[in-house]
């Protein structure tokens, strides 16, 4: 490995571990154990969550409800999201694995390739955070952002395909950076799944299915 390029892995790894520990210690399991709520606020928060169908009734959280699994399998939305997670995993694997290879093909050194590959991740994080913040204030926009972000990422892929990097290297590199929008649809899909699926077994089955489709297809690439 070229000198000093390993620092980026040390930084990313340390940040990931630190964030995981922070979430483990600071994020409550439920409103009833939220440390930042008072004793009077906790029951109100629990009722509010239950009223918006974010969790299931207590009687529904014990045991496996096979009826809910069959209900999920008969739901067209399940197969739509399964298809999306499959396609997203394939695209994600290609983007993340071949992004440095594409940039190095522009004639940059190994060290500069690592540096120039970073903005794509920054764009992914910024777009994800910004559009998620908008959905918290304006309802019914998650599907819209899902489609728009996918269109931007596809436009970036089209630029990389169509533009000759030997003549227009900066434009082709901009297309690579636009591919960073691929992360937004994934976040929106998970959010829709979490808020629109009711039933502990069904919610768990759909969540595990998403991870399975994503993991198998991403690993295969």
From TrEMBL:
<feature type="transmembrane region" description="Helical">
    <location>
        <begin position="143"/>
        <end position="162"/>
    </location>
</feature>
<feature type="transmembrane region" description="Helical">
    <location>
        <begin position="115"/>
        <end position="136"/>
    </location>
</feature>
<keyword id="KW-0472">Membrane</keyword>
<protein>
    <submittedName>
        <fullName>Putative allantoate permease</fullName>
    </submittedName>
</protein>
<keyword id="KW-0812">Transmembrane</keyword>
<dbReference type="InterPro" id="IPR036259">
    <property type="entry name" value="MFS_trans_sf"/>
</dbReference>
<dbReference type="GO" id="GO:0022857">
    <property type="term" value="F:transmembrane transporter activity"/>
</dbReference>
<keyword id="KW-0813">Transport</keyword>
<keyword id="KW-1133">Transmembrane helix</keyword>
<feature type="transmembrane region" description="Helical">
    <location>
        <begin position="6"/>
        <end position="27"/>
    </location>
</feature>
<dbReference type="GO" id="GO:0016020">
    <property type="term" value="C:membrane"/>
</dbReference>
<feature type="transmembrane region" description="Helical">
    <location>
        <begin position="174"/>
        <end position="192"/>
    </location>
</feature>
């Amino acid at each position: 490995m070229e000198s000093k390029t390993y620092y980026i892995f040390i930084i990313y790894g340390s940040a990931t571990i630190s964030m995981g520990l922070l979430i483990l210690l600071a994020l409550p399991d439920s409103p009833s154990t939220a440390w930042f709520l008072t004793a009077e606020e906790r029951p109100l928060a629990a009722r509010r969550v239950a009223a918006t169908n974010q969790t299931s009734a207590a009687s529904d959280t014990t045991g496996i409800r096979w009826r809910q699994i069959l209900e999920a399998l008969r739901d067209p939305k399940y197969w739509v999201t399964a298809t999306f997670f499959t396609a997203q995993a394939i695209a994600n694997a290609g983007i993340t694995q071949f992004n440095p290879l594409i940039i190095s093909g522009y004639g940059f050194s190994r060290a500069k390739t690592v540096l120039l590959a970073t903005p794509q991740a920054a764009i992914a994080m910024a777009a994800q955070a910004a559009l998620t913040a908008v959905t918290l204030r304006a309802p019914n926009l998650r599907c819209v952002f899902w489609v728009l972000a996918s269109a931007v990422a596809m436009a970036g892929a089209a630029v990389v395909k169509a533009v000759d990097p030997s003549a227009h290297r900066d434009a082709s590199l901009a297309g690579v950076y636009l591919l960073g929008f691929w992360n937004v649809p994934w976040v929106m899909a998970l959010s829709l799944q979490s808020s629109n699926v009711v039933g502990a077994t069904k919610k768990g089955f759909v969540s595990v299915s998403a991870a399975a489709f994503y993991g198998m297809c991403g690993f295969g690439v």
